[in-house]
Write a structure and sequence with these properties.
alpha/beta; four-stranded mixed β-sheet; 8 helices; 9 strands; 21% strand; binds adenosine-5'-diphosphate; binds guanosine-5'-monophosphate
Length: 203
């Protein structure tokens, strides 16, 4: 049976910095085919181990502002003094080719995507507790105490946006969080409107 889709599904994943989004996404991508992780543009400095073009495309403020001016971004936001944004072209090409596209973006950007693409799936990921979020940010050992404090403050504001999302995933154990996201994506694939191609032969 040909399961290739006519159009890919846009999936938006948000959650506070340090909750484990990158960890969960890496595991999800290793398990699931036909899904593309949208590599965002950012003006923040790379962390140790991050690769340009893999984790992010690292650009200057001038380059980023040029992309805004040329309307090249699906959405963008400022987060703890840096710009972050999604390239429209890169994701449109994949969606048109029937490939699912996963965005790891913060809540302001997610709201902009919801306004432009209401059919997208919106998933929010939380830690098992606020204390555990703080522990993870410290254990990651990539940000200064000031930056960590800013990210924890930001997290409290972000949690207020959860009611605008479709699904809430708890990242206690990575494997369980990945399993929940897999279940959400599989359910979306089974929607009648996403199976029109298969249905045609029964008409
Ligand atoms: P984010 O991408 O949301 O900022 P990361 O994926 O960088 O978060 O994870 C932050 C830290 O927490 C990392 O050190 C990572 O190894 C750790 N981590 C991620 N998920 C879990 C988990 N389920 N349990 C314990 N530690 C985790
Ligand atoms: P970090 O600096 O921890 O990698 O990311 C900080 C925040 O920026 C995270 O909440 C992440 O989801 C968000 N982010 C990453 N890329 C984008 C993007 O392209 N657009 C928006 N709006 N947020 C992004």
């Amino acid at each position: 049976m040909n399961k290739k889709k006519e159009k890919g599904q846009l999936i938006v994943l948000s959650g506070p910095s340090g909750v484990g989004k990158s960890t969960v996404i890496a595991e999800l991508l290793s398990q699931r085919d036909n899904i593309y992780f949208s590599v965002s543009y950012t003006t923040r400095q790379p962390r140790v181990g991050e690769q340009d073009g893999v984790n992010y495309c690292f650009v200057s403020r001038e380059e980023f502002e040029g992309m805004i001016a040329r309307n090249e971004l699906l959405e963008y936001a400022e987060y703890v003094n840096n710009y972050y944004g999604t390239s429209l072209k890169a994701i449109q090409e994949r969606l048109d080719a029937g490939i699912d596209v996963l965005l790891d973006i913060e809540v302001q950007g997610a709201a902009k995507v919801k306004a432009r693409c209401p059919e997208a799936i919106f998933i929010f990921i939380i830690p098992p507790s606020f204390e555990e979020l703080s522990r993870r940010l410290h254990r990651r050992n990539t940000d200064s105490e000031d930056v960590i404090a800013g990210r924890l403050e930001k997290a409290k504001v972000e949690f207020r946006e959860i009611p605008h999302y479709d699904y809430l995933v708890i990242n206690d154990k990575v494997a369980d969080a990945v399993g929940e996201i897999e279940a959400i994506l599989t359910a979306a694939e089974c929607r009648v409107e996403n199976r029109k191609g298969i249905l045609a032969q029964f008409a």
